[in-house]
Amino acid sequence: MATETHCPYCSLQCGMRLTGRRAPEVSAWEEFPVNQGALCRKGWAAAGLYGGRERLTSPLVRDRETGEWSAVTWDDALDRVVAGIRAAQAAKGPDGVAVFGGGGLTNEKAYALGKLARVALGTSQIDYNGRWCMSSAASAGIRAFGLDRGLPFPLADVEETDVLVLVGSNLAETMPPAARHLDRLRARGGRVVVIDPRRTPTADRADLVLQPVPGTDLALALGLLHLLVAAGAVDEGYLAARTTGWAAVKESVAPWWPERVERVTGIEASQVRELAEVLAGSPRVMVLTARGAEQHSTGSDTVLAWINLVLALGMVGKRGAGYGCLTGQGNGQGGREHGQKADQLPGYRRIDDPAARAHVAGVWGVDPDSLPGPGRSAYELLDACGADDGPSAMLVLGSNIVVSAPNATRVTERLEALDLLVVCDVVMSETAAIADVVLPVTQWAEETGTMTNLEGRVVLRQKAITPPSGVRSDLEVIAGIAERLGSTATFATDPEEVFAELGRASAGGPADYSTITYDRIRDEGGVFWGGERLFASSFAHPDGRARMLTVEHRGAAEVPDDDYPVHLTTGRVLAQYQSGAQTRRVRDLPDGGPFVELHPLLAGRLGLATGEAVQVSTRRGTMTAPARVVTTIRPDTVFVPFHWVGANRLTNDALDPASRMPEFKVCAARLAAVGRG
Ligand code: SF4
Question: Are 591 and 575 in contact (CB under 8 A)?
């Protein structure tokens, strides 16, 4: 008997069938609409998450003096965790304890974690690694549309557009089953435009490829809107009826003539004009952004600039057109809706909204005044660890911070400065390795829970196999800690029960799950919160209109100079996922380790050939990896994948002022051929 469930990895949440109670076998689930049986290499190899000898099955505590680990009982481990929490609270008050979650946690876990923080711990200090994934697009969506749902339409709508513009998305490599939509779009005569400093496999499916200097996508959007205004291609009727702020935006793009855009972005003015002509003549235009455009200190303004462009063309709300963000992590969408983000309560409610606090406190059975206010964003929270005014104890679920945080050497030092670091994980990840207590938990097919995919479709990951003895679910860990802390609120451990409570807590909020049930998800192949397509007749602001907001090009926080003369950008490869804690341990996935991708012109100056060691340095750190010399990258830019320790020792922790997104995608670097100086 096969169990219908979903892939353990990215935001597409491809449907798959699993058979076998101990070692699962993956087979296609053709009826699931999102992927129709197709999986990428990671999905087909997902069963390899089981059977490895590295799986943790006993709680572990580390002796700080000797560094040695000892296996302990669950009671002993949880007692030690709670004793450390109490000590931190006694020294610093409730905010002396922090919680760090992840965009791969189920909705149920994200919800329970937020409740643990606000009710049982009373701390405001909770955030999660999703802050580093989609927060710039989320911030822009809320400001422009009054609502953030990554794609406000099914992904398959891509096939219905006339021009698809992908800004900073390597969709063909990061979620290959989605690439068939590009093929079908082109088969019916539509065009695909790819904007990326690297010519990725996605560009192989494009009709037009623009390779801007990293960190200049915003200027390109301003320049395109300038040309659309000049061509009389904007939809004045739509702008008058459905938006506010157009006059100021129109004025703001006036100075962005194509030659100025060329100077800033490195894209020839003729190419900028060519794209503007394509956009101006197309009845349906769709712009999708991803991390390449968003992971910048100007990420939310960059997304706003692209939203302004599609609004000016009258595209948002039109079928087969509009704007969307291609979310990255498996539950990147749901993870930001139900309370593990520093400024939110379940249902995408704001924690500083008195009505929201009263509603959620009612569901939790506590006094609204007892709920803390907003806390620090993810990087700021980590940066404060061990500081006089920062937390001295932290609980981490679903995140491998040591690999995935920007400026990772500093962040690791801050984690080591804590009096207590507790990590829940399935293997001894790089972050678990520096913890005081490691709690072994269930993963993926061993447990049931919902995920919300990149379309806002809530799907059900169903338990398919028996977990190893000795492990507990994250929900059980959360309940165990809350109980030991003497919390009067109840913490259910059955996922369906938690989901029903989440539904009540989200009722009436922007992301309202109150009518979604496990049975409906099973019967309907997933359920879209808010409806399948949004914004057809109105936006989520009180007056129903979208906000057009003026934004200015500022450029990257760090630009090349004599000491650090090239741009460094980071990203993913097909066979690995995020920090690699899971995929690097799957035998059927190739793990070639990190590499440094660079152009032959740059390699020639350094006397480097493919395979030779190259050292990459920034103002924050250094790493060494083999060179990969390719003609597909800009000569002034190098690329390093971030699935291994190293890349994020280099990245910049400059933050976007609105979203608090770090600038993962660009910083200044210098290279040296190892052994040649
Ligand atoms: Fe699908 Fe993403 Fe899993 Fe690949 S990693 S099978 S694209 S959900």
Answer: yes
Domain residues for the domain of 270 are: 136-326
Model confidence over 32-85: pLDDT tens digits? 999 999 999 989 988 877 877 789 999 999 999 999 999 999 999 999 999 999
Q: pLDDT tens for residues 276-312?
A: 999 998 999 999 999 988 898 999 999 999 999 999 9
CATH number at residue 151: 3.40.228.10
Nearest atom (ligand 1) to Cα of 10: 2
Whether ligand 1 lies within 6 angstroms of the CB of 175 is answered as yes
User: 286: which strand partners?
Assistant: 164, 322
Tally of domains within the chain: 4
* Pocket lining: 40 vs ligand 1, CB cutoff 6 Å: yes
- Ligand 1 lined by 42 (C-beta under 6 Å): yes
* Shared-domain flag, residues 315 and 412: no
The encoded tokens of residue 524 equal: 């309907």
Residue tagged 């806390």 (tokens): 375
Residues 335 and 432 in one domain: yes
Determine whether the shortest distance from the Cβ of 326 to ligand 1 is under 6 A. no
CB burial of 276-291 (b: ≥16 within 10 Å; e: otherwise) equals bebbbebebbbbbbbb
Our mutation pick for probing the ligand 1 site, out of 5, 11, 14, 461, counting the most ligand atoms within 8 A of Cβ, is: 14
Placement of tokens 């002396």 in the chain: 96
Task: Give the span between the Cα atoms of 561 and 23, in whole angstroms.
Answer: 53
Q: Identify the segments of the chain with pLDDT beneath 70.
A: 573, 579, 676-677
